[in-house]
Amino acid sequence: MSTAERLMSSLTARRGERVLAWLAVGAVGVSAVLSLVASPPDAEQGGLIRLMYVHVPAAWVAYLAFAVVFVASVAYLRTRKTRWDRVAAASAEVGVLFTALTIVLGSIWAKPVWGTWWTWDPRLTTTAILLVIYVGYLAVRRLPDNPARRARWAAVVGIVGFVDVPIVHLSVRWWRSLHQAPARLIGVPDVSGSMGVALGVGFIAFTLVYLYFMALRLRVGRLEERVVAEALSPRIGQPAEALMEEPARG
Amino acid sequence: MSALGQALAIAKKDLRIEVRGRHVAGTILPFAGTLLIAFGLSLGPGRSLLRQTAPGLLWLAVLFASVLAFRQAYQAEGEDGAFESLILAPIDKASVFLGKAAAVVVELLALEAVVVGLVVVLFDLPVGHAPVVLAGAFVLGTIGLAVVGSLFGALAEMPRTREAIFPLLVLPLCTPVLVAGVKATELATTGPAGQAGSWLGLLLAFDVVVTGVGSLLFVYLVED
Known about the structure:
Chain A is mainly α and 250 residues long. Chain A is 78% helix and 0% strand. Chain A has helices spanning 2-12, 14-38, 52-79, 82-114, 122-141, 147-177, 194-236, 240-243.
């Protein structure tokens, strides 16, 4: 745990944050050039295939973010260190953002290719339920005024939600297989060569964006904790630093 | 007293409250009936459409009724600081969780028996084909609903929580129960009942997973 914690604090220091920002901007730029210019249009879908280079990486980040929420929630309940709660909170917010982005980008892609904004495809349906589960998680985070209680409740929801997702997906997949497909579903396009490179760079770019958002959100979380500590310190008669787990930088 | 005995004692206590207060029988059951009539009105009087949608409507009514049943199960604890006493009692916290779930399973099964009867009358659903499969779907599905409800009902009853948070958490998490329950009911009434096995298996798997995870995590919800 301590190695992970050290890595986390160096990435979320101000300098680490700036480095991450430039890396993310650079990678997104390279990804845009590769996916819009350098990669060929698809034989079947033409230029529409370019949506894949943002849609699939966005979905990857969404699942990555929720896996991080799960790990951080377990870590919080085991160690009771506030930083793990902040990681879970930050990752859930970024995850909800990217899940919504995945659904919107997928709809934009589905309309011309499948002829409909939405089909009850297992992956689509699971993603929609995933979004609702983690919107519920964020709603739980807004409930109690006691930070320790909020952290515990959120951790429980973060764990149960993540464990539930595979069962949801399985149930929706079986449910779907017993129906007739409403639209002709085009399978996963054959991704190779320059398309594979573009997709790979897209994954890297989106992951860097995720890390940058996390760094920003974690700093905001530390500052929030400092505001609370500074407001409390004159009343308790203890210096603000003593009320915080780690003194906030910057 | 063993953990199982503690859970049974809590379940018995909750059932005694229900027998004396008749909240499920007096309020939630009529609500489920109202829902079914509203579903019938919204889908029109066409018999074949009603029959086709009956399993889904039946489970929706059960799902909404279970949300209310859990509000009640924990609201009763909210009075006179009863919940604090329950948590401070020297018993396993998982027993509280399982006991409350067990009591609601019994209440919901009684409610479902009446609701199924209503659906037979109102929507003309044939339930005689495979009663064992149908009963299995309801027992397994109800256990899943009750366990998820028992876990988050504790959270919804704490001070300063908002009413809507409970259904917002429970309904999406219970998607597998809704899907598998509806499918198993469909197969047990109008389809080949022999194919319902995998859906019952899914319900069982859901029950095992959420009971295990819930027993481990409940203690963190009620720690203070």
